[in-house]
Design goal:
- With about 170 residues, the protein is an alpha+beta fold.
- The chain has two domains: about 1-100, no CATH class; about 105-170, Nuclear Transport Factor 2, Chain: A, CATH 3.10.450.
- The protein is about 50% helix and about 20% strand.
- The protein has helices spanning about 1-10, 15-25, 35-50, 55-65, 75-85, 95-100, 150-170, and strands at about 105-115, 125-135, 140-150.
C-alpha cells in the first residue's frame, strides 16, 4: 500500500511486484506473482479513485464495506491506516492523470553477444545486442522487456537516442 501511495505521488516510478513477491515469499507467505500483481492493480485503482473523488477515510472504508464482502477485516484495517496516514498526500492534477495513461521508463541494460553456432548452421559468428528495458506500466507495476538487435539495428537505435538527447538539451 505504501509503495502504491509513493507511486501515485510520483516519488517512485512504480511498484516492483517481482521484488515485492520475493520479499513476501521469503517471509514465509505463499503467493504467486500473478496474484500479487492483481492485488497491486486493485489497490492502485482503489487509492487513485478515492483520491480523485476526495474520499475521507470513513467514506473509503464504508464504500469498501458496501462493495466488497469477501475482503478480510485485516486488509480493510491496513487500507484504512494507510489511507488515513498518507491518502491526503496524493495529488491528482490534470497533468498527473494524463501522464498515468502511459508507461514510464525506469532503467535500461544491454549486453553484446555472439551466436557461435546453431543446430541448423555450424558456424554463425553473428554478433547481436540484447537490450533489457525496465518499464513501469500505468498501474505502477514494473515489468522487464527485452529484445535483440543486429549491430546495424543497434547503431540506428543509438543514433536515435543521440538525436533525442540533443533535442532534450535544447529544452
Amino acid at each position: 500500500c505504501e509503495q502504491i501511495i509513493q507511486h501515485l505521488n510520483h516519488k517512485i516510478p512504480g511498484v516492483n511486484v517481482a521484488e515485492l513477491c520475493q520479499r513476501i515469499q521469503t517471509s514465509g507467505i505463499e503467493i504467486n506473482l500473478g496474484d500479487l500483481a492483481k492485488i497491486a492493480n486493485i489497490v492502485s485503482f482503489l487509492f487513485s479513485t478515492a483520491a480523485r473523488n476526495n474520499l475521507s477515510t470513513e467514506e473509503l472504508v464504508a464504500t469498501l464495506g458496501n462493495a466488497v464482502n469477501a475482503l478480510p477485516k485485516h486488509a480493510v484495517q491496513v487500507i484504512r491506516h494507510v489511507w488515513n496516514e498518507q491518502g491526503k498526500s496524493i495529488s491528482v492534477s490534470e497533468d498527473a492523470r494524463n501522464m498515468a495513461t502511459m508507461g514510464q521508463f525506469v532503467d535500461i541494460k544491454w549486453k553484446l553477444g555472439v551466436a557461435m553456432s546453431s543446430d541448423t548452421c555450424r558456424s554463425l559468428k553473428y554478433p547481436y545486442v540484447t537490450v533489457m528495458l525496465k518499464v513501469a506500466d500505468p498501474s505502477g507495476q514494473i515489468t522487464d522487456k527485452s529484445f535483440e538487435m543486429t549491430i546495424p539495428q543497434f547503431k540506428n537505435f543509438f543514433k536515435q537516442f543521440k538525436e533525442m538527447a540533443a533535442v532534450l538539451e535544447t529544452v
